[in-house]
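Batch manifest, entry 17 of 40.
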Amino acid sequence: MAVTLAFDERFEPQLTVTRDGKPLKSIPPAVKKEKAIAALAERLGELKKQASQVRWSLETSMCRGDELSAPNSRSCPTMPSSRRCSSGSC
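Output type: structure tokens
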């Protein structure tokens, strides 16, 4: 069994579970209790929360008409959670 945490083509965090090369819909309960798997699931939640906060922050800034400083605008594409928004597909 393999459990992978990665970003998809839209830069959304995804937890993928496969057994014998076939994808599973969810993590089996027995495996979910393992420390490494639980840590991945927790990290997934953190990344989703971070992405939500970045989207909200950028949307609020755009509504107010705020301008990003040069250093901030250069660092946005390097953060996976904001890469999607900076590419225009937020």
